[in-house]
Design brief:
This protein is an alpha+beta fold. It has seven helices and 18 strands. The longest helix is centred in the first third of the chain and has 20 residues. The chain is globular.
């Protein structure tokens, strides 16, 4: 009985301390729709939600790809359900959705982002280093939508192409190209919307940290495979679209440098798996390979590919950082120029991949 009283007292004190330590400096999230006050985030990384559902019995917020048990919101007398996450969230971007009486919906207060094979709500948790992907008063490049013919799939397909600020000014200059792939459940909008790739590029170019280059983002056809059955994914269809159709179209319609030394491929998560497969199967196409939370290369993979200029491997500190570092150490011993990066205090999420792009970009096309 004494032990039980001590345990309950400890839990009570812990909860009191937690409640006292929560800062009430909540502000609307940067990812809210115009004029919407909720969801909100505070300086500690907590998120607070407010959903109007007067006829509902239960409302829950599920955050992240897995969703988990979620944050249960409490019904108020005015018909609003409100609640705050139990603890702080990782800094950066997170998908989420609302469950109302068993049905899944998007939060009407938030903007939507394509992830988990659907348009979902998203919330941005402020990060101390967010300056590198912030919108600034610097020269900006353009993100253009292109539709390119795809005879292999008997349709036109879509890609987004980032061209640096200087592209429209110096019409004689040609540029290297990075083909940048999204992960499972996402599409060709992910790197611009969730990843802020264009702002990262703009800011780094303005600071003189990187050589300007073009970035091409297209749908990797990864969502044809259901979650949990990734081993059934076949690369051949997307490989044909990328190698035989998209790259020739980009080279014909943009001022690109078309040799392999000026072409790179990178991908996050399942896009990293695609990158590994395609780069190894097409050694004459790319000279720079990057896997962002997307596995590793072994020295044996590159034994007969002497012209590889860069291998970049990254992960969040909450993923498999030791595996990434070990793989790079082994590649270096084999004489391969390899670099590892571990994003501090993040997992399998866009803050890891934003930071990874920031670290990768200055290494490309040297």
């Amino acid at each position: 009985m004494t032990k039980l009283i001590i345990l309950l007292s400890g839990l009570f004190i812990s909860n009191m301390l937690s409640a006292q330590s929560l800062k009430e400096d909540f502000k609307p999230a940067a990812t809210n729709q115009p004029g919407q006050l909720f969801p909100q985030v505070n300086s500690q990384g907590y998120a607070r939600f407010k959903i109007h559902a007067p006829k509902a019995d239960s409302v829950r917020v599920s955050l992240g790809l897995g969703g988990g048990s979620g944050t249960v919101l409490q019904k108020q007398n005015d018909g609003f359900f409100t609640g705050t996450t139990e603890g702080p969230m990782d800094e950066g971007f997170h998908y989420y959705n609302i469950t109302v009486d068993g049905g899944k919906f998007n939060d009407p207060g938030s903007m939507n982002y394509y992830g988990s094979v659907r348009w979902e709500s998203g919330i941005e948790i402020p990060a101390p280093d967010e300056d590198f992907y912030s919108f600034k008063d610097v020269p900006h490049g353009q993100v253009s939508q292109i539709l390119f013919p795809s005879p292999s799939t008997n349709t036109s397909r879509r890609a987004f192409v980032y061209t640096p600020p200087s592209y429209s000014k110096d019409t004689n200059k040609r540029y290297p190209v990075l083909y940048l792939q999204h992960g499972w459940g996402e599409d060709e909008t992910a790197w611009s919307n969730q990843g802020k790739a264009n702002l990262i590029m703009d800011n780094m170019i303005a600071e003189g940290k990187i050589k300007p280059f073009i970035v091409v983002m297209t749908y990797g056809m990864t969502n044809e495979v259901k979650w949990g059955r990734i081993n059934e994914f076949k690369i051949e269809e997307f490989e044909t679209v990328l190698i035989k159709e998209l790259i020739p179209y980009v080279d014909a319609n943009f001022r690109t440098l078309t040799d392999k030394a000026n072409r790179a491929m990178a991908g996050l998560s399942m896009g990293g798996m695609e990158t590994k497969m395609i780069t190894l199967r097409n050694p004459k196409v790319f000279a720079h390979y990057a896997l962002l939370s997307g596995g590793t290369y072994a020295a044996s993979d590159l034994a007969h590919k002497p012209d590889v200029k860069l291998i970049f491997l990254s992960s969040g500190s909450k993923e498999n950082p030791d595996k990434v570092k070990q793989a790079v150490d082994e590649l270096k011993k084999a004489g391969v120029y390899a670099v590892s990066y571990v994003s501090p205090n993040t997992g399998h999420e866009f803050q890891t991949w934003r930071r990874s792009l920031r670290e990768l970009a200055p290494l490309l096309f040297k």
